[in-house]
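Hi C.,

You asked whether I'd gotten around to modeling the 149-residue construct. I have! Everything is below, sequence then structure, no commentary in between.
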Amino acid sequence: MDGGTILKTSISSNIEANKKDYIRSRLIEFNLRHFPEELKGRYEELKLHLVDEDEDIIGGIVGEFCWNWLEIHYLFVEEEHRKSGYGQLLIREAEKMAIQKKCDFIKLDTLSFQALGFYVKEGYEVYGTIENAGGHTHYYLKKDIKNRA
């Protein structure tokens, strides 16, 4: 093998949080070497949540500001609170934050039984699909927000 001798290998699906963080941080470190100087240091998590009067979480959005874009990993609203505008409230707050951070676009993905119609209504465009993802279609969407400040 190139790069030296490997003394011991171990493959496990039980990865400790610190090892997962190590792998993630090393990839980010590698990626940073390939981005323009003005984008370095622009990497942070997005965590928004909605709570009811009892402080129970009824929805939230999780993602990452990655250099010049926002990547949304999860947007969820409890079933009994759907169709009440909470998803729209969350995504628009995330978009507002992305604009403030001078992101050029937002990207996310959804499955055919999830929220494709919602995202399209919010201005997201499908740029790719994978058929038969667990018997469903997996959609990849993007919304350009450059120069919206």
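If it helps when you're writing up: Helices lie at 17-32, 86-100, 116-121.

Thanks,
B.
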